[in-house]
C-alpha cells in the first residue's frame, strides 16, 4: 500500500503546483499595465532646444521618448493632443525659503515648480518628486556671530543651529571645527553649502527693512573671515558640494571670489567692481538671479546684471556658459509662489545683447530647467529635461510660452514623477 500512497502524494503535489502556477498566471494577467501618457503639442521645449509638432511619451514615472505622433501613438492609449500649447520640463527653483516661511509645497508645485532648493532654514533630507514637490535643502546659512541672517530673523539667538535659519561660526573657530560643520551638513543631506557675507547697509535691500523683530541693526555687520570662507569652500568641494554665498556689495564679493565660491545666491544689490565682476564671470562663477524680488535695490542691481550679461555675450563664442541660474526666492510676499514670469523677463532683457535673439530665450529657459539641474548636481538622470529616462516632471501651458513667459505662472498641466497634479486638457481617442 505504501507505493500507492507515494504515487497519490506525488499526484496531489503535481496538482497543487499546477494550481499555483495557474493562479500566478491569472494574477499576472490581471496586473494592470504600467501607466502611460502621450502628450502632443505645437511646441516642445526639451530642456535644451525647441521641437515643433512633437509628442512626449511618459511611461510610469519616466519620460520614454520625444518623437512624431505617428511613431509613438501605438505605444500608449492615453493620449492628450494639446494643440496650440507649449510643453516643458517642470521648472527648478534654485533659491527658495519654502520650509522656513511655511509655504504650501502643493501650491508651489501647482504653479509649475517641480523641484526647489531651500536655502536657509532647517536641514532636511531630499524629499518628494513622485506626485509632490521635489524639495532639496542647504540647511542653515553659515554666518559670523552677530551677523546676518540671525541678526535679522532670530536676533535673540546669536548661535543658531541646524534647525535654524543660520548657524553662527565664532571668530575663534578652528579649521577643524569649521570643516566639521560642513561635514555635518553634507552628511545629513545638504544639497549645497550656503554662507552669508552680508555687511548690510545696501539701500532698498529687503534685509534692510524691518521684519517684525525691532529695528534693523546698524551696519556694518560681522561677516566670516577670508580664511574661514576658504576652509568652508575647500571642505565643501572635497565632499562634492557647491558653495553659495549671500553677497550684497563689493567687500563680501571680494571674499567670495577670492575663496573660490561657486555661486552668488543673489544678484548683489550694490554695484560691484566691474573689473572683478568680469573676472569672476569669465572664471565660471554663477549667479542665481532673484532680480525681481530685489528690484527695490535699484540701479546697482541692474548694473551688475547688465555686466554679467555683457561678459557672457562677449565670450559665449569662446565657450563661456550662461552665468545666470533661475531663482525667484519663493516665499517672499512680493513674488509668485511658483514660476515667475517677471523674473524670466528680467533675466532675458538684462542678459541679452543689443537685440534679443532666440538663443537668448533658450538660455533663460535652460536656466530654469537643464542648466539649473546641472548646477544642483543631484545625480538624478535627466532632471530638468524631457530626454529618455528623465523623471516625468512636465508642465504645459496653452499658447506660446516662448513669447509670453507670463503663461508659465498658470500652467494648464503639471506632472510630477508621471502623476498628473493639474490637468485642464481632455484625452483624445
From TrEMBL:
The keyword Signal is annotated on this UniProt entry: yes
Keyword GTP-binding: no
Stored Pfam families: Amidohydro_1
Annotated Amidohydrolase-related domain residues: 86-421
Keywords, comma-separated and alphabetical: Signal
Signal peptide residue numbers: 1-29
Database matches in Gene3D superfamilies: Metal-dependent hydrolases, Urease, subunit C, domain 1
Protein name (Swiss-Prot/TrEMBL): Amidohydrolase family protein
Organism: Methylomonas rivi
Amino acid at each position: 500500500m505504501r507505493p500507492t500512497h507515494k504515487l497519490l502524494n506525488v499526484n496531489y503535489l503535481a496538482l497543487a503546483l499546477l494550481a499555483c502556477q495557474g493562479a500566478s498566471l491569472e494574477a499576472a494577467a490581471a496586473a494592470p499595465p504600467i501607466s502611460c501618457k502621450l502628450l502632443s503639442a505645437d511646441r516642445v521645449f526639451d530642456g535644451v532646444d525647441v521641437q515643433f509638432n512633437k509628442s512626449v511619451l511618459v511611461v510610469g514615472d519616466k519620460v520614454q521618448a520625444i518623437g512624431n505622433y505617428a511613431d509613438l501613438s501605438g505605444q500608449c492609449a492615453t493620449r492628450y493632443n494639446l494643440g496650440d500649447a507649449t510643453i516643458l520640463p517642470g521648472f527648478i527653483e534654485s533659491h527658495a525659503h519654502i520650509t522656513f516661511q511655511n509655504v504650501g509645497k502643493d501650491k508651489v508645485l501647482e504653479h509649475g515648480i517641480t523641484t526647489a532648493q531651500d536655502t536657509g532654514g532647517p536641514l532636511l533630507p531630499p524629499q518628494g518628486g513622485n506626485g509632490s514637490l521635489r524639495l532639496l535643502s542647504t540647511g542653515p546659512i553659515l554666518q559670523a556671530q552677530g551677523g546676518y541672517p540671525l541678526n535679522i530673523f532670530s536676533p535673540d539667538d546669536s548661535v543658531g543651529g541646524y534647525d535654524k535659519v543660520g548657524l553662527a561660526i565664532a571668530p575663534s573657530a578652528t579649521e577643524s571645527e569649521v570643516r566639521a560643520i560642513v561635514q555635518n551638513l553634507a552628511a545629513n543631506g545638504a544639497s549645497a553649502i550656503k554662507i552669508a557675507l552680508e555687511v548690510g547697509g545696501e539701500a532698498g535691500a529687503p534685509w534692510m527693512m524691518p521684519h517684525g523683530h525691532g529695528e534693523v541693526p546698524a551696519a556694518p555687520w560681522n561677516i566670516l573671515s577670508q580664511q574661514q570662507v576658504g576652509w568652508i569652500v575647500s571642505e565643501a568641494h572635497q565632499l562634492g558640494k557647491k558653495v553659495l554665498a549671500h553677497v550684497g556689495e563689493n567687500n563680501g564679493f571680494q571674499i567670495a571670489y577670492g575663496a573660490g565660491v561657486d555661486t552668488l545666491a543673489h544678484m548683489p544689490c550694490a554695484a560691484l567692481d566691474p573689473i572683478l565682476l568680469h573676472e569672476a564671470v569669465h572664471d565660471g562663477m554663477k549667479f542665481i538671479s532673484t532680480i525681481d524680488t530685489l528690484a527695490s535695490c535699484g540701479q546697482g542691481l541692474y548694473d551688475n546684471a547688465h555686466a554679467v550679461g555683457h561678459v557672457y555675450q562677449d565670450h559665449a563664442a569662446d565657450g563661456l556658459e550662461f552665468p545666470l541660474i533661475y531663482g525667484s526666492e519663493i516665499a517672499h510676499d512680493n513674488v509668485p509662489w511658483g514660476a515667475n514670469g517677471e523674473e524670466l523677463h528680467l533675466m532675458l532683457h538684462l542678459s541679452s545683447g543689443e537685440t534679443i535673439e532666440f538663443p537668448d530665450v533658450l538660455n533663460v529657459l535652460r536656466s530654469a530647467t537643464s542648466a539649473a539641474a546641472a548646477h544642483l548636481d543631484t545625480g538624478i538622470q535627466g532632471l530638468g529635461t524631457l530626454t529618455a529616462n528623465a523623471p516625468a516632471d512636465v508642465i504645459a501651458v496653452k499658447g506660446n510660452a516662448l513669447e509670453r513667459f507670463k503663461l508659465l505662472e498658470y500652467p494648464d498641466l503639471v506632472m510630477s514623477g508621471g502623476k498628473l497634479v493639474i490637468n485642464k486638457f481632455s484625452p483624445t481617442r
